[in-house]
């Protein structure tokens, strides 16, 4: 008898984390598993992978995805006992995922009907349990369907039905399975999934406790997470040297440090002050000579950020790059010595006409030791899509360095910054230039009133203003914003703009614009 080729009998089955290339198969799988219910949209699954990739699992058999499950982390004590699926998942996008949460919340599990009976669901539950143990979470909580209840609805209440299933007098394909996998019933929630007619919209809230959970002092309920910000209303005046510019800049960083600030924010293109020492009257040529100071500028601000232990938003600076194009770039100088940059996306007609400034095409969100932030240079704050993206990626503060010549221009920046704060439940900070440069073409006059703004709700200042400068004088404004108050307000505020968006009606679609989250590893 010839030796058997065992490979022809092998089947490769694997439990692994979901990847981008699995999304189409998972959407098809849901249509098969839950006919008549609203399926995932691509943007839902992309959001899961972006926010909590380690919590998304699938089972692959010979290259085909035959089962999957999704989850997020929450601090379950912060949710109402009668929450719905939309409440706990932010309508399926899990943007409420809390990396400091105590509980893993399972929001969906499905197995292709052709492969039921192969313990696929159990494999997925085991993957969740292993994850909960790895992350040292207290428990796994799920809102489970009871799809056979509609057959008994005219005979008994949902509570009686659940009790009968627990006593094994009735079989329910979901509830029975969950009980067999070690989950205990906590309560029955009505209107959990409005489109789940088989369960008559009810669900059982169930919990599996991690017996290996170890309480740790690394996680605690924060009552406050203050971040102190100094916005610098910078005076544009003629100078004689780069050293004079550096002394003026260091003075303000020193002041911000003396106040214990976490961030010091300079205005847009305040480095054009250096044009007063450049012997060039043609603006398009002067701006390229200004770019020659880029290395000196970066060295100065990197040194100051480390020396004074302050994260610095270095206003913005005109930079000529290898392709001979000039860009308006805002730099983030972290106090650990690392540097990031954000190109201005929307260039004003004036910048194009006089200086030939080119637009950037990437929106960035930066990690800092005070949470995630974004930088939007002047005109960019007037385009709400940029702020919405930044907040969706976790930004809590949006810094807006600006430079405007009159009150109308300033008010466009201010009103839009306050609008962004309200509609995105985020803090915004504007810092502008005042004074004038009498020897520099196209830098005629300046108008500014720098400020720090909040959402509009009871948790914040009555007028949504942490603090603001007097207009048109050289000064600063210092204020504290509280990230913990912001986090709570996003969950339980009078209004919740982020959670109440009608994603079923509209969405953002970036075409040529690229997006990026910059971590500080």
Describe the structure.
This protein has 521 residues and is an alpha/beta fold. It folds into 2 domains: 12-209, Gcn5-related N-acetyltransferase (GNAT) (Aminopeptidase); 227-492, Carbon-nitrogen hydrolase (Nitrilase/N-carbamoyl-D-aminoacid amidohydrolase, 4-Layer Sandwich), CATH 3.60.110. Helices cover 27% and strands 26% of the residues. The strands form 2 sheets. The protein has a 15-stranded mixed sheet that branches. The chain contains 13 helices and 22 strands.
Structural class comes to alpha/beta
Q: What is the β-strand count?
A: 22
Shape label? elongated
Number of helices: 13
% residues in beta strands: 25-35%
Tell me, rounded to a whole number, the average pLDDT: 90
Radius of gyration: 28 Å
CATH class of the largest domain: Alpha Beta
Number of domains: 2
Terminal residue distance: 60 Å
Q: What is the third-level CATH name, the topology of the largest domain?
A: Nitrilase/N-carbamoyl-D-aminoacid amidohydrolase
Q: Into which percent range does the helicity of residues fall?
A: 25-40%
């Amino acid at each position: 008898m010839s030796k058997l080729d065992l490979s022809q009998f092998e089947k490769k089955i694997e439990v692994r984390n979901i990847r981008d290339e699995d999304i189409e198969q998972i959407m098809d799988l849901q249509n098969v598993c839950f006919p008549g219910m609203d399926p995932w949209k691509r943007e839902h699954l992309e959001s899961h992978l972006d926010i909590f990739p380690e919590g998304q699992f699938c089972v692959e058999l010979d290259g085909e995805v035959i089962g999957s499950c999704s989850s997020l982390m929450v601090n379950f004590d912060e949710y109402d006992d009668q929450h719905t699926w939309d409440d706990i998942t932010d309508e399926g996008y899990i943007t409420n995922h809390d990396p400091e949460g105590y509980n893993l919340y399972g929001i969906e599990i499905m197995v292709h009907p052709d492969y039921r009976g192969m313990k696929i669901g159990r494999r997925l539950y085991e993957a969740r349990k292993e994850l909960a143990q790895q992350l040292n979470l207290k428990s796994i909580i799920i809102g489970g369907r009871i799809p056979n209840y509609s057959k008994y609805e005219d005979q008994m209440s949902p509570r009686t039905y659940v009790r009968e299933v627990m006593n094994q007098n009735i079989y329910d394909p979901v509830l029975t399975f969950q009980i067999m996998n070690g989950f205990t019933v906590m309560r029955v929630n009505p209107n959990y999934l409005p489109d789940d007619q088989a369960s008559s919209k009810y669900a059982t809230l169930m919990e599996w406790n991690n017996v290996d959970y170890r309480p740790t002092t690394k996680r605690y309920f924060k009552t406050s997470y203050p971040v102190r910000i100094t916005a610098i209303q910078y005076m544009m005046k003629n100078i004689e040297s780069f050293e004079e510019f550096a002394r003026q800049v260091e003075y303000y960083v020193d002041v911000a440090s003396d106040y214990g600030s976490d961030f010091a924010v300079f205005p847009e293109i305040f480095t054009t002050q250096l044009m007063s020492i450049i012997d060039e009257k043609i603006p398009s040529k002067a701006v390229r000579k200004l770019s020659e100071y880029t290395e000196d500028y970066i060295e100065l601000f990197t040194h100051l950020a480390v020396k004074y232990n302050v994260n610095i938003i270095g206003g913005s600076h005109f930079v000529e790059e290898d392709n001979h194009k000039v860009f308006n770039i805002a730099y983030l100088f972290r106090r650990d010595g690392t540097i990031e940059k954000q190109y201005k996306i929307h260039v004003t007609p004036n910048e194009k006409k006089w200086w030939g400034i080119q637009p950037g095409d990437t929106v960035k969100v930066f990690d800092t030791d005070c949470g995630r932030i974004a930088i939007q240079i002047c005109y960019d704050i007037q385009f709400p899509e940029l702020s919405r993206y930044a907040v969706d990626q976790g930004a809590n503060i949006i810094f807006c360095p600006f430079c405007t010549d009159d009150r109308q221009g300033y008010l466009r920046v201010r009103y839009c910054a306050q609008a962004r704060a309200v509609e995105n439940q985020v803090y915004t900070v504007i810092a502008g230039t005042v004074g004038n440069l009498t020897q520099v073409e196209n830098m005629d006059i300046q108008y500014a009133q720098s400020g720090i703004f909040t959402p509009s709700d009871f948790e914040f200042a009555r007028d949504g203003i942490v603090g603001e400068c007097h207009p048109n004088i050289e000064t600063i404004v210092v204020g504290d914003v509280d990230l913990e108050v912001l986090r709570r307000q996003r969950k339980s505020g009078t209004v919740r703009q982020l959670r109440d968006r009608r994603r079923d009606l509209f969405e953002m679609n970036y075409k040529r614009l690229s997006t990026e989250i910059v971590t500080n590893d």
